[in-house]
UniProtKB/TrEMBL annotation:
<dbReference type="InterPro" id="IPR003769">
    <property type="entry name" value="ClpS_core"/>
</dbReference>
<dbReference type="Pfam" id="PF02617">
    <property type="entry name" value="ClpS"/>
</dbReference>
<dbReference type="GO" id="GO:0008233">
    <property type="term" value="F:peptidase activity"/>
</dbReference>
<dbReference type="GO" id="GO:0006508">
    <property type="term" value="P:proteolysis"/>
</dbReference>
<feature type="domain" description="Adaptor protein ClpS core">
    <location>
        <begin position="19"/>
        <end position="98"/>
    </location>
</feature>
<protein>
    <recommendedName>
        <fullName>ATP-dependent Clp protease adapter protein ClpS</fullName>
    </recommendedName>
</protein>
<comment type="function">
    <text>Involved in the modulation of the specificity of the ClpAP-mediated ATP-dependent protein degradation.</text>
</comment>
<comment type="similarity">
    <text>Belongs to the ClpS family.</text>
</comment>
<comment type="subunit">
    <text>Binds to the N-terminal domain of the chaperone ClpA.</text>
</comment>
<dbReference type="InterPro" id="IPR014719">
    <property type="entry name" value="Ribosomal_bL12_C/ClpS-like"/>
</dbReference>
<keyword id="KW-0378">Hydrolase</keyword>
<dbReference type="GO" id="GO:0030163">
    <property type="term" value="P:protein catabolic process"/>
</dbReference>
<dbReference type="InterPro" id="IPR022935">
    <property type="entry name" value="ClpS"/>
</dbReference>
<keyword id="KW-0645">Protease</keyword>
Amino acid sequence: ERTQHERGLVTEEAEPRLKRPPLFRVILLNDDYTPMEFVVEVLEGIFGMDRTTATRVMLEVHTRGKGVCGVFTFEIAETKVAQVTTYSQQHQHPLLCTMEEN
Ligand code: TYC
């Protein structure tokens, strides 16, 4: 009679490996021209932040040069970056947004 462990060894049952997807930080970069209010609107409208959080993140980017808007899987992060870029260009602001793997 084999134990459950021995059965696993003999038949080489696959372990149910639950793998997590790679995650990417979406980063906002500071510049000298984009209005603070516009950045707050981007953080609210595209990243779903409330006004208090959006203002804190905007001021962190303003004072430290860059800041994290959120952490997402690749496709979501890519889409957020594209939305920020398109919206900023539509309003002729130089606001830059990139992504970094975690
Ligand atoms: N530095 C800008 C200003 O003084 C404000 C700003 C904040 C711009 C965050 C970009 O990602 C940014 N108007």
